[in-house]
Amino acid sequence: MSTAFKISSFLETNSRVHEFEYEVMDMRRVGEKDINLLSVLSEEEIRQLDSLKIEKNRIQWIAGRYAVKSALFKYKLQRAVLMDLSCIDVLKGEDSSPFIPQYQDICVSITHSFPYCIAIVSNKKIGVDLEGISEPNESLIRYFYSTEEKNILENLKKTDEYCQRAMIFWTRKEAVSKLLKLGMRMDFRELNTSKNEMTIGNYYIYLKSYICGEFALSIASE
Fold first, then answer.
1. Is the pTM of this model over 0.70?
2. What is the spatial distance between Cα 83 and Cα 86, in angstroms, rounded to a whole number?
3. Which domains does the chain have, with CATH numbers?
């Protein structure tokens, strides 16, 4: 079973429960001369693309816009609405989170971890994060993980599950910060993601995670 299939299967199952649409892209297949990708970009998006000089950033940017618009197309199709995707803008807000000015009632979340790009759209607040699994930096755990998370990881040291659980906690933190549109302004150390549900202010948040091959994937949803 391929990693891409595992990612898609996890998202498909949870999309029914948490009411979102999604798209998974393999960024290795993104080429700027691919008319099928570039044809969905709006004039404003093309202008922003032209300002990006680093090839990696350009590929991630194209993949993110294409994935969001593909997910949006599915979302609207479910509601019997068709649209010209080149008339839709996927922009970055002041908090650096993506949004669609033409549909400000729709929440958008994007994550990149080479070679995959995932986009989710929903009428609920939502966040998604994908990260490659690796040995976590001890300083990262010390400064950004909650006491409960540290205790769990301490009991898992020298086991195969240690790195996986550490990255699940991290992707959950990232997903929650995207849901709340706080980014790194959130105090990650106060965020205990060891349970599958949490309350932050007026938000009751559900957490779902999955190990997809060499990646950890998490969703945070209202």
1. yes
2. 9
3. 20-123 (3.90.470.20), 129-221 (3.90.470.20)
